[in-house]
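Hey, can you fold this?
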Amino acid sequence: MAAIEPKKHEMPVQKPEVRAHNFDEVALGYSAEIAAAEAQRCLNCKNKPCTQGCPVNIDIPEFIAHIKQNDIEGAYDVITKSSSLSAVCGRVCPQENQCEKECTLRVKLGIDPVGIGRLERFVADTHRMNKTIKPSKPEPNGHKVAVIGSGPSGLTCAGDLAKKGYSVTIFEALHTAGGVLVYGIPEFRLPKIIVADEVNTLKDLGVEIMTDVIIGRTLTVDELFAQGYEAVFIGSGAGLPMFMNIPGESLCGVYSANEFLTRSNLMKAYLDDSRTPIMKGGNVAVVGGGNVAMDAARTALRLGGEKVYIIYRRSMLEMPARNEEVEHAKEEGIDFRVLCNPVEILGYKNENDPRDPKNGKVRAIKCIRTELGEPDERGRRSPRDIPGSEFELDVDTVIMAIGTSPNPLIKSTTDGLEVNKRGGITVNECGLTSRENVYAGGDAVTGAATVISAMGAGKTAAKAIHEALSGK
């Protein structure tokens, strides 16, 4: 056997000084030549540890084997047996913590794992460019299922059921299908044309999508059953933003990351002729250390931010964002202020002129330096304030990216639907809730998590719905 290259092949990217000023996709994707070379690094392990690390159980060695044979459509067919969103997953999944973490090259040889996510993206993009035949609709089986929410869990559940002949209707509260994939993830990381193509593939399978329908207002879960739906899957996500409850959070110029990204991504505030209001320019502080914080900071930079800070109360080692996103943010000039915690947002107040237009707007954020204590039972070190270490950063905008929780609307309008203390819908291992024939998955259950984990929950629920309605 030929010697294995120790490093995975680099992903071609836009140069930092170029991409920091546009919303075009940063990562440009493997060429056919690079993909073929990277595929050769796969050992085709018989026990397939990478597949076991994938939340939707894609047969990874099998699809890579097709790439080695230059059979890209064959590779695509293998992936789509398990995943309805391959072009999305290839871009935004945290492969380094899932399939690639289990790769034998990494675990046993101590070298870079195979670039599984990059190869998945290559396969999906190649299929998309060459696609000429729409998928055929399966023979109807006579059963109707309603899916609430068109995010990754809802799209996955709908796709798996549609392939089995179910009549599936997705009810989406916003005007565009895609959920967090369209309102939460910026264009430079996930182009919306990619999401639209994945949605259109489901439509080709017969899935109907009803937008501008708010379950709990327009219709209730009980009314869906009254309309003849035999099962309901709730994949409504976690759209309720969290705040720190510190002084000054009501000042003009303070956003939740959810609002800020929705205005930019879904409402196209980044376009030059957009009429969607959003803060542009000035100095920006983003509070948080996850992928959403990286997305918000990099979006603010592209909207004209002169100085953009990430404020995170732990160190770089504890930062939960993907390494790739952190590195891209650093390269673009984002200023990381770690081991710092906001204690107050300061505003303008002109005592001499109450009509001063700056009154009530953000002028600075006050932080305190922190240090990490001993690890807790989960191994996580909690930050603690260092007395007397307060300092101020002059900023015009503050974006809170410290998490979201499920919206309570569906719970409050659905009798007998149990939730946990964090507002997440309670489910069993199959995704079944406390209500008969009502299933749930994704962020509506777990709170904000990854796209692929939501897809796994949608897949699990689809299997359970099929077994329940088919009498298995």
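Oh, and this one too while you're at it.
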Amino acid sequence: MIYIGADCMDKKEIILEVKDLKVEYGKGKKRFTAVDGVSFSVYKGETFGLAGESGSGKTTIGRAILRIVETKGGAIVFNGIKISGKIDRKLDRELKRSIQMVFQDPMASLNERAKVDYIVSEGLYNTKKYIDEFHRRKKVEKALLDVGLLPQHADCFPHEFSGGQRQRIGIARAIIMEPELLILDEPTSALDISTRYQIISLFKALKEKLNLTYIFITHDLSLLRSIADRIAVIYRGKIVELADTERLFKNPIHPYTKALLSAIPVPDPVVEKNKVLYIYNPLLYNNPPRLVEVEEGHFVLRD
């Protein structure tokens, strides 16, 4: 097991540790490994990015932390307590409050037949985290105001809102639980450009206001550059590179990271037309790889 972040333990408080995580899908001959030996730590108050192409395993990691999918091996530790595998009912209830997720598709993640008041209150109903109806309603109003919506929106249905507003409802549903850790699974990929950056600005404001910690999952490295403190690049269920955001952009080392960065569009038509794309060929890396620290806090998968 390779533990990432031990050099900073005396400087920052660790809220989440993922150690040698392994997740498998299917059975028998159809079984495949979606996440293979992933290890990282997340510090309280930071935004930790998980980047990779579709099918890389980044969303599976988020779902394993949420206990939506079972782990095959390794451990997930939250605030010093192991939360993977079998846990008691009390801890399970507490985790449903402490760790929340904002989903990718604002159109599919909301119940079309329910009013916003019920949608935002779902977690409260399930965990009984309110005193009475007046208290619950006030919590809903505050959550809506925190995400830039109005209290009267609580009496509307999801189809009455735009995509960006629906995503704000999804965010309100998460923050009303007063979580410590928020997992953001491609939360802006279904939105247009202008709305996307409004939502990113909202995440930044909520992080400071509510003292949140984020795990931001996306295929868009350029988006992570504007919000993440550190980034782990995922390829076929493994971390191939992990570093502080600016260090990763200025000095990418793994060929897959270079390929992802070279695919980012440049806002100059001449430069964009003439740039050379870096192609990653995994067949060139046949030996069992291992993560090595090439400089302080910068880890790369190498043969």
